[in-house]
Amino acid sequence: MLRELRKGRPLGQVCQTLRIFPAQLHAFARINPWFQAELDEALMEGRNPDLLHGSESAYRMHGCRCPECRRGRAARR
Questions:
Q1: Is the confidence at residue 24, as pLDDT, over 90?
Q2: Considering 28, 30, 41, 62, which has the largest number of Cβ atoms within 10 A of its Cβ?
Q3: pLDDT, tens digit, for every residue of 29-45?
Q4: Position 76 pLDDT exceeds 90
Q5: Can you give the pLDDT at residue 16?
Q6: How confident is the model at residue 56, as a pLDDT?
Q7: Distance (Å, rounded) from C-alpha 21 to C-alpha 48?
């Protein structure tokens, strides 16, 4: 899974292939610091460099779930 994320495959597609919900993945990451670090690293490595990360558009329209985009979304809630 992390390898696919590093290649730039969207988190939603990876979760669909594994037949899990993204919320399950993030819940596990919250209780496992090692996995959270690996997940964030993979998402950063595979993110689209053409997007304005941390923006509403990157999160909602383009599905980026890198740490910067997640923080940006949380700040707007």
A1: yes
A2: 62
A3: 999 999 999 999 999 99
A4: no
A5: 96
A6: 87
A7: 22
- Domain range annotation of the chain: 1-46, 50-77
CA distance 77 to 61: 17
Query: Residue 74's Cα: distance from chain center in Å?
Result: 13
At residue 14, what is the residue type?
A: V
What residues contact residue 60 under an 8 Å CB cut-off, 6+ apart? 73
CA angle, 47 as apex, 42 and 70 as ends, to 5°? Answer: 85
Longest dimension (CA), the chain: 32
pTM above 0.90, yes or no: no
